[in-house]
Amino acid sequence: MTEKGNYPDVLVIGAGITGVEASLLLSNSGRKVHLVEKTSYTGGTVIKFEEVFSNMECSTCMVAPIQQELLQDKNINLLTLTEVEDVKGSSGNFTVKIHKKARYVDMQNCIGCDACFEPCPVSLKNEFEEGLSERKAIYVPCAGALPNVPMIDTEHCLRFKGKDCKACQEACMFEAIDFKQK
């Protein structure tokens, strides 16, 4: 029997409240954590609710301290818009293949000013708010989203439908919109 090396890095799939809490606990015990989330934000389903049972606490207020801790933790590598494609190996020695989708907004350059929203000519129902409000093709899914950086909905953005629209890019004075991002 041959013994394979164990690697201390940990992969947590899903950045809902449970995934974030697990990542923080693992990080506090000295582990390097890679937190993978398929959506563009953390908080999961809980962040969609206005209030959470049993004490009817504001969900954003409940999640905000945990998200702040996540944001400041140097041992946690947060990967949003990312999905696990394949897992190989055995206990303590896995190789994981992931696919990260483009946000088309440079997270380093964007300051979250929302100047790119208004000039976008596309308006559609906001799925996050169950269609009760509208959003643009460039948007932040919800208040308190982490990371608080917009993303471009390629399914509805005119640029990705072959039209010559650069409205959001021209409105961004920080050059954060990058249609070539992979």
Automatic annotation (TrEMBL):
Keyword Metal-binding part of the UniProt annotation: yes
SUPFAM superfamilies xrefs: 4Fe-4S ferredoxins, FAD/NAD(P)-binding domain
A Pfam family it matches: Pyr_redox_2
Keyword entries, A-Z: 4Fe-4S, FAD, Flavoprotein, Iron, Iron-sulfur, Metal-binding, Oxidoreductase
All copies of domain 4Fe-4S ferredoxin-type, residue ranges: 101-131, 148-182
Name the UniProt record assigns to this protein: 4Fe-4S ferredoxin-type domain-containing protein
Family in the record: Belongs to the HdrA family.
Cofactor(s) this protein requires: FAD
Residue ranges crossing the lipid bilayer per the database entry: none
Source species of the chain: marine sediment metagenome
Coiled coil regions in record: none
Gene3D superfamilies per UniProt: 3.30.70.20, NAD(P)-binding Rossmann-like Domain (3.40.50.720)
GO MF term set: 4 iron, 4 sulfur cluster binding; metal ion binding; oxidoreductase activity
